[in-house]
Amino acid sequence: LEERKNHDMPPFSRLAGVIISGEKPDEVQTAALTLSRAIPSSTQIKVLGPVPAPLTKLRGKTRWRFLIKAPKQGKIQEFAEAWMQSVKLKSAIRVTVDIDPYSFL
Protein backbone atom coordinates (compact mmCIF):
# COMPACT_ATOMS: atom_id res chain seq x y z
CA LEU A 1 0.00 0.00 0.00
CA GLU A 2 2.87 2.36 0.80
CA GLU A 3 4.44 1.65 -2.60
CA ARG A 4 1.14 2.46 -4.31
CA LYS A 5 0.91 5.71 -2.40
CA ASN A 6 4.49 6.66 -3.32
CA HIS A 7 3.74 6.12 -7.02
CA ASP A 8 0.29 7.70 -6.91
CA MET A 9 -1.48 4.52 -7.95
CA PRO A 10 -4.96 3.31 -6.93
CA PRO A 11 -6.48 3.61 -4.42
CA PHE A 12 -4.68 6.98 -4.22
CA SER A 13 -5.52 7.86 -7.83
CA ARG A 14 -7.79 6.68 -10.63
CA LEU A 15 -6.95 4.84 -13.83
CA ALA A 16 -8.80 4.15 -17.05
CA GLY A 17 -7.79 1.82 -19.84
CA VAL A 18 -8.65 2.67 -23.44
CA ILE A 19 -8.52 -0.18 -25.96
CA ILE A 20 -8.66 0.43 -29.69
CA SER A 21 -9.35 -2.72 -31.71
CA GLY A 22 -10.13 -3.82 -35.23
CA GLU A 23 -9.45 -6.48 -37.82
CA LYS A 24 -6.93 -4.49 -39.88
CA PRO A 25 -3.70 -3.76 -37.98
CA ASP A 26 -2.88 -0.64 -40.02
CA GLU A 27 -6.33 0.87 -39.37
CA VAL A 28 -6.03 0.19 -35.64
CA GLN A 29 -2.61 1.83 -35.47
CA THR A 30 -3.86 4.83 -37.47
CA ALA A 31 -6.84 5.19 -35.14
CA ALA A 32 -4.55 5.06 -32.09
CA LEU A 33 -2.30 7.75 -33.55
CA THR A 34 -5.33 9.87 -34.45
CA LEU A 35 -6.57 9.60 -30.87
CA SER A 36 -3.12 10.47 -29.52
CA ARG A 37 -3.13 13.75 -31.48
CA ALA A 38 -6.53 14.62 -29.98
CA ILE A 39 -5.69 14.09 -26.29
CA PRO A 40 -7.23 17.02 -24.39
CA SER A 41 -4.84 19.25 -22.50
CA SER A 42 -4.99 18.83 -18.73
CA THR A 43 -2.72 19.75 -15.86
CA GLN A 44 -4.13 16.98 -13.66
CA ILE A 45 -4.83 14.08 -16.01
CA LYS A 46 -2.08 12.21 -17.85
CA VAL A 47 -2.47 9.91 -20.82
CA LEU A 48 0.15 7.26 -21.53
CA GLY A 49 0.36 5.62 -24.94
CA PRO A 50 -0.59 4.57 -27.46
CA VAL A 51 1.17 1.22 -27.35
CA PRO A 52 0.25 -2.23 -28.61
CA ALA A 53 -1.86 -3.98 -25.97
CA PRO A 54 -0.17 -6.79 -23.99
CA LEU A 55 -2.43 -9.22 -25.85
CA THR A 56 -1.96 -7.49 -29.21
CA LYS A 57 -3.95 -10.09 -31.12
CA LEU A 58 -7.13 -11.35 -29.48
CA ARG A 59 -9.86 -13.27 -31.29
CA GLY A 60 -8.54 -12.16 -34.67
CA LYS A 61 -8.45 -8.46 -33.78
CA THR A 62 -5.44 -6.21 -33.32
CA ARG A 63 -5.47 -4.11 -30.15
CA TRP A 64 -3.70 -0.91 -29.05
CA ARG A 65 -4.14 0.84 -25.73
CA PHE A 66 -3.84 4.02 -23.71
CA LEU A 67 -3.76 4.46 -19.95
CA ILE A 68 -5.40 7.50 -18.38
CA LYS A 69 -4.16 8.44 -14.91
CA ALA A 70 -6.01 11.00 -12.79
CA PRO A 71 -6.03 12.21 -9.19
CA LYS A 72 -8.47 10.51 -6.83
CA GLN A 73 -11.00 13.33 -7.30
CA GLY A 74 -10.19 13.79 -11.01
CA LYS A 75 -13.04 13.85 -13.49
CA ILE A 76 -11.74 10.91 -15.47
CA GLN A 77 -15.11 9.97 -17.01
CA GLU A 78 -15.73 13.49 -18.32
CA PHE A 79 -12.17 13.66 -19.68
CA ALA A 80 -12.50 10.31 -21.49
CA GLU A 81 -15.92 11.18 -22.89
CA ALA A 82 -14.79 14.56 -24.23
CA TRP A 83 -11.70 12.95 -25.75
CA MET A 84 -13.60 10.15 -27.49
CA GLN A 85 -16.25 12.53 -28.83
CA SER A 86 -13.60 14.83 -30.31
CA VAL A 87 -12.49 12.24 -32.89
CA LYS A 88 -14.36 10.49 -35.67
CA LEU A 89 -12.94 7.03 -36.36
CA LYS A 90 -13.82 4.44 -39.01
CA SER A 91 -16.82 2.30 -38.15
CA ALA A 92 -14.59 -0.81 -38.27
CA ILE A 93 -12.67 0.48 -35.24
CA ARG A 94 -13.94 -0.22 -31.76
CA VAL A 95 -12.91 1.90 -28.77
CA THR A 96 -13.54 0.61 -25.25
CA VAL A 97 -12.98 2.73 -22.16
CA ASP A 98 -12.67 0.86 -18.86
CA ILE A 99 -12.76 3.15 -15.82
CA ASP A 100 -10.88 1.72 -12.81
CA PRO A 101 -10.10 -1.54 -14.63
CA TYR A 102 -9.55 -4.74 -12.74
CA SER A 103 -6.97 -5.95 -15.26
CA PHE A 104 -4.86 -4.32 -17.97
CA LEU A 105 -4.65 -7.28 -20.34
Note the run of SSEs as H and E.
HEHEEHE
Radius of gyration (Å): 14 Å
What is the overall pLDDT average?
94
The overall strand count is 4
* Unreliable sequence segments: none
Give the structural class: alpha+beta
**Oligomeric state:** single chain
Q: Quote the beta fraction.
A: 35-45%
- Tell me, what's the shape? globular
The helix content, as a percent range, equals 25-40%
Major β-sheet strand ordering: 2-3-1-4
Main β-sheet, in a few words? 4 strands, antiparallel
Our count of helices gives 3
Distance between the termini: 22 Å
What would a concise description of this structure say?
With 105 residues, the chain is of the alpha+beta class. The chain has 3 helices and 4 strands.
Tell me what you see in this structure.
- With 105 residues, the chain is α+β, with helices and mostly antiparallel strands.
- Helix content is 27%, strand content 38%.
- The protein is built from three helices and four strands; from the N terminus they run αβαββαβ.
- It has a four-stranded antiparallel β-sheet with strand order 2-3-1-4, covered by helices on one side.
- A hairpin with a 2-residue loop joins β2 and β3 (61-71).
- The longest helix has 13 residues, at 25-37.
- The chain is globular, with a radius of gyration of 14 Å.
- The relative contact order is 0.29.
